[in-house]
Amino acid sequence: MSLEKIDKSNLPRHVAVIMDGNGRWAKKQGAMRIFGHHHGIKAVRETVEACGELGIQYLTLYTFSTENWNRPKLEVDGIMQLLVSTIAKEVPELHKSNVRLKTIGDTASLPAKARRELDNGMALTKDNTGLTLTLALSYSGKWDIIQATKHIAEKVKKSEISIDDIDEELFSRYLATEESPDVDLMIRTGGDHRISNYLLWQSAYSELLFIDDIFWPEFRKEHLFDSVYTYQLRERRFGKTGDQVKKETK
Ligand code: IPE
Ligand code: IPE
Ligand code: MG
């Protein structure tokens, strides 16, 4: 897949990735699951670089879900340690590449060390103007909708918002993704065809792309380029007819 085939005027603004299959990839090599998580970092680096090369504005990576807390303690601890060491190691390079680091999720439940590294990384990169890289950590779509609802309800109680003000635009602003646009392209590796409680509201009209023959540690730049190319072949109709859409894009 060559970069030239990609139409730079029709890029997805926001790409979300469900980075799945680390454990199965490791098992295939007769290794522990954490070995797969370690090897997933190269795939993250390649994805960030590929998005930067294309000029994609928002990349949101499903890094640890609310439900992932239910995994064995050994694996959860291993992932948290890996998070701390990876952020510390990668942030200088991200900063050099003009990437702005963000997080979404119930980050208060992360170990203090992880929060500290993330806070430092976000503070350092906050004024960068390239790719916005958001890590979803202790995140789930239902958690997000509930935290937004509680926040809005508080404001209604204090008469800072009236019920009639609540519309899609206002609600979106209270979601953890704040000012990011809705997801255009959602990619999942690893062979499962589900959303697993990811960006539920934000993916209402996403193009879904399931890459069945790749586990996350095997994902490379070319897979991201292929995915964007496939996205560009899709017709996004948003409820209209194909004829209407063709007329509008003429
Ligand atoms: C995704 O890979 C990474 C995380 C959920 C942290 P998995 O760990 O889910 O790998 P599989 O799906 O069990 O192979
Ligand atoms: C989704 O993968 C979460 C992440 C990739 C971080 P899971 O492996 O946890 O999803 P399920 O449980 O198979 O649906
Ligand atoms: Mg999985």
Brief overview, please?
This protein is α/β, with parallel strands linked by helices and 250 residues long.
Keywords:
six-stranded parallel beta sheet, Undecaprenyl pyrophosphate synthetase, binds 3-methylbut-3-enyl trihydrogen diphosphate, 6 strands, single chain, 250 residues, alpha/beta, binds magnesium ion
Write up what this structure looks like.
This protein is of the alpha/beta class and 250 residues long. The protein has one domain: Undecaprenyl pyrophosphate synthetase. Helices cover 45% and strands 14% of the residues. The chain has helices at 22-28, 33-54, 73-96, 112-125, 141-157, 168-174, 221-233, 242-249, and strands spanning 14-18, 58-65, 100-104, 132-139, 185-189, 207-211. A 6-stranded parallel sheet has the order 3-4-2-1-5-6, sandwiched between helices. Helix 2 runs parallel beside helix 3, helix 2 (33-54) packs across helix 7 (221-233) and helix 3 packs parallel to helix 4. The chain is globular. The model has no long low-confidence stretch (mean pLDDT 97). It binds 3-methylbut-3-enyl trihydrogen diphosphate (IPE) (2 copies) and magnesium ion (MG). One 3-methylbut-3-enyl trihydrogen diphosphate binds at residues 19-24, 64, 68, 79, 190, 216. Residues 19-24, 64, 68, 79, 190, 216 line the site of one 3-methylbut-3-enyl trihydrogen diphosphate.
